[in-house]
Amino acid sequence: MKPYSFLIILTILVSCVPSDKKGTMDTIVKYDSIQIYYDRSIGEDISITEKSKSLDRAIYLAKNLKNDSVLGNLLYQKSSLLFQAGEYDSLLLHHRNFINTAARINWPRIQASQYYLMGYYHDRVESDYKKAFENYSAAKNQFELAKDSSWVGKTLLNMATIQKDQNDFFGSKETVTEAIVFLSATEHTDELVQCYNLLATNHRKLFNLKDAIAYYEKAIANSVNAKDKIAFENNLGATLVDDGKYEKAIAIFERLLKDSSLDSSTARYARILDNLSYTKWLVGQEIADDSFQKALAIRIKKADMRGQMASYTHLGEFYMKKKPPMAMAYFDSVIQVSKRMNVPRAETDALRFMIQLQPNNVKLYERYVHLNDSLYKEELSVETQFAKYKYDDKLKQESILRLEKEKAEQALLTARERNKKTMSYLGSIVLLLGLSFVIYYFGQRTKRLKERNKLAKLEATLETEAEMSRRLHDDFGAGLNQTMLMLQSDADKSAVLDKLDALYNQSRNFSRAINEVGTGGRFKDEFLEMLHFRTPKNANLFVTGVKDIQWNEMAPLSQQVLFKVLQELMINMGKHSHAKMVTLGFKRAGKTLTVKYSDNGVGASLEELNAKNGLRNTEKRIQAIGGSIIFDTGKGEGFTVRVTIPF
C-alpha cells in the first residue's frame, strides 16, 4: 500500500479552518509540523529508529485534530514501518491501539489497509491461517465500503489461497470465483491469471480434471509473465499425467526444459525434470535414477522441502519392484520431511506405498488409519471455521447496513420534527393575532395531532423492531442458536455443517450424516438396521452375501466409511429414485470388499449426478481410504453403483 499524500489533505484542511486569525495560524503551524515529521519518517537517509520517533511525534500532534483521517494515515504508516523493521511484537501492540482508535475514524480505506497488512503478517510471517483469514476478511469488508473492487478481489484471492492450503478446496473455489467477479471489472491481469491457476488447482484436487485442464490453459493464455507461464504449463502437464494423457504431458515437460528462460539451477527446473522422469517411467520407458537424483540434488541445495518430498516419493515408487528396501528408505525420508514441515497428508501418501511393500506391518497400517482419521476431522473443522468466518462477516455487514438505515430514518424523523416545529411556531404567531377562541382551538388541535403522531411513531417503531427481531430470530438467531446448542451437545457433525451452510445463503448444502457408527461387534446389527430403516415402505430391499462376511475383522475406519456411503445411497434413493426394488450384494476377496448397489428407479443423468453434493462426498470418502466407487446410471435406466473398499 502506498502512503497517502498528506500535502493535498493539509492544503484542503487549512483552507477550511475558522476565520479566527490566531486559531488559523495555530492550525497552520500544527499541520506544517506534522508534514515535516511525516516527510522525515519516509526519508531514506535516517535509521528505522529515527523514522519511528518522527512518526510518534506526528501522531502526538495529530491526536487533537478535528480531521481523523490525518491521524489514521499516520497510524497506518506506523504499522507499515514496524512491519518493515521486523518489530513484530511492537506491531501487534500498535495494531491493538489502532483498533481502539479506529472506532472514531470514518475512513474505510485506512482501516482496510491496516487489516490487510495484519493479514499479510499472520499469513507470511506467522503462518497462522486463522488470524490471517480473519484479518483479510475484515480488510475485504472495509475495501467494499471504500468501493475499491480491485483490492476486494486481491484480498479474496489471498483468502482463497489460504483455504486451498488448508485443503478446503470447495470453499477456496467459491472464494476465488467471487474474486474473479471483482477483478474482471479491473485491469489486473496478473491477479486474474493467479485466480485461474488457483481455480484449476482446486478442480484438480477435487478430481475435476477436465475443468482443471481448461483453467490451466486459460491461465497460460492470459499470462504475460514468462516465469509464471512456465509454472502454469508445468501444472498443466502434471494434471495431464493425472488424466492418463502421458504423451501430451511428456511433450510439455520436454519443451519447457529446452526453454532458454528457464535456469537449470532453480527449483522450478528441478520440478519439471522430476515430473518428466516420473512420467516417462509411468509409460514404461527405461529411466535411470540419475534424472531423479539430479532433481533431488537441486531441491536439497535450494532447500525446497516440498520438492524433496516429491522426489523421495517418486524414487520410492521407482524402486518398489527393483529394490524394496531402498524404496522403504525413500518413503521414510518423505515421512521425516513431512513431519518437519507439518504436512501429514504427505506422510499418509508415503504410508500407503509402504503398506504395499509390507502388508503385514500392523504398525504402518494403524498409523495410516490414525492419520487419515485425524486429517478428515481436521479438514472438517477447517471448513466449518471458514464458513463461520464468512457467516459472521455477513452478519456484521448486515448490522452495518441496518445501522445506516436506522440513522437515515432517524435523520428523516428529525427533519420532519423540525418542519413540524417550524410550522407550529408560524401557526402560533398567526393564532396570537386572532381571537382567543381560535388560539385555544388550534392549540388543542395541535396537541392532539402531536399525541397522535407520537403514538403512530411508537407503533411504527415497535412494528419495525418486531419485524427485525423476527428476521434475526427466524433467519439467523434461531439457526445460530441451534447450531451452538448442537456443538455444545456433541451433536451430529453433518447436521452442524448443514446448519452453517444453510445460514450462509445455502451456498454449500453438504448432506453429511457423520453421526458415530458402532464398529467391531456392533457394526453388523447397526448397519442392517440402518439399511432397513432407510428403505421406503413401498420398496423391497434384497441383501445377499452379508452372512459370508466376517464383519468383526473389518477395519473400524472402513466400517465407518462403508456405513456412510451406503447410508448416502439409501437416502438418495428414498428422495429421488422412486425405486420399487433395491438390491445389495456383498463379496469379499482377500483384503478388499466389493459392494454392488442397484435399484430400478428413475436413474439420473450425468449432470444430475454431478449436482448431488452427497454423492460427490461419498466418492471423496471412498478415495480417502484407498477405495473406489463407480456410478452406472442414465435417465430412466435405474441406478447402479459398485464400491470397492479396503477390508
From TrEMBL:
Catalytic activity: ATP + protein L-histidine = ADP + protein N-phospho-L-histidine
InterPro entries (UniProt xref): HATPase_C_sf, Sensor_HK_TwoCompSys, TPR-like_helical_dom_sf
Alphabetized UniProt keyword annotations: Kinase, Membrane, Transferase, Transmembrane, Transmembrane helix, Two-component regulatory system
EC number of the protein: 2.7.13.3
Bilayer-crossing regions: 423-442
MF annotations from Gene Ontology: protein histidine kinase activity
PANTHER family for this protein: NITRATE/NITRITE SENSOR PROTEIN NARX-RELATED, NITRATE_NITRITE SENSOR PROTEIN NARQ
Protein name: histidine kinase
Organism of this sequence: Flagellimonas lutimaris
